[in-house]
Amino acid sequence: MLIVEVKDGETIDKVLKKYKKKFEKAGILKELRRRKNFTKPSVKRRTEVLKAVYKEEMYGNKND
To answer: What is the pLDDT at residue 18?
Structure first.
């Protein structure tokens, strides 16, 4: 649960902005989306490897 402390005289807009920032930092929505669909560990690993290969091809060989 996220708790945002409200100071005296603070507007609801500021408090809402604080809450949204805290929510974003906590990664709650990201975690919910990740848990929504199960992906097998082998598939997860394969996508990580493919991303790494892509990055290496794009940015790794700058000595040309």
So the answer is: 94
